[in-house]
Amino acid sequence: MEDDKLVRIDVICTHYEIEPTFIDALLDYGLIEITVVEENKFLDKTRISDLERWIHLHYDLDINFEGIDTIANLLER
C-alpha cells in the first residue's frame, strides 16, 4: 500500500477521542486490519467508515466487542 492511503493509528485515536486499546480489541476480533511501517501502526483510509461504525456501536450504543463482531458477520452476508 502507498503511504498516502494510510492514516496513523495515534492520529485516528486523537481525532475520534478513543483509546488505542479500542483499536487493539477491534484488531483482536478481526474487525480491522493494521499495517505496520517502521514500527508505526496505520489504518487504510478506505476502512475509516468501518471504524466509525464500530466506534458508534461501541461508544454510543454500548455494544460490546462480541456484539460488534456478530453485527459485522451479519452485515457481510
Helix content: 40-55%
Could you tell me the mean pLDDT? 94
Q: Radius of gyration over alpha carbons?
A: 12 Å
Helix-strand string: EHHEEHH
Task: Give a verbal description of the structure.
The protein is α+β, with helices and mostly antiparallel strands. 55% of the residues lie in helices and 16% in strands. The protein has helices at residues 9-16, 20-28, 48-60, 65-76; strands at residues 6-8, 34-37, 40-44. The chain has a 3-stranded antiparallel beta sheet. A hairpin with a 2-residue loop joins strand 2 (34-37) and strand 3 (40-44). It is globular. The mean pLDDT is 94.
Strand and helix layout:
Elements: E1 6-8, H1 9-16, H2 20-28, E2 34-37, E3 40-44, H3 48-60, H4 65-76
Antiparallel strand pairs: 1-3, 2-3
Compact description:
The chain is an alpha+beta fold and 77 residues long. 55% of the residues lie in helices and 16% in strands. The protein has helices at residues 9-16, 20-28, 48-60, 65-76, and strands at residues 6-8, 34-37, 40-44.
Which key terms come to mind for this protein?
3-stranded antiparallel β-sheet, 77 residues, 55% helix, alpha+beta, 16% strand, single chain, globular, 3 strands
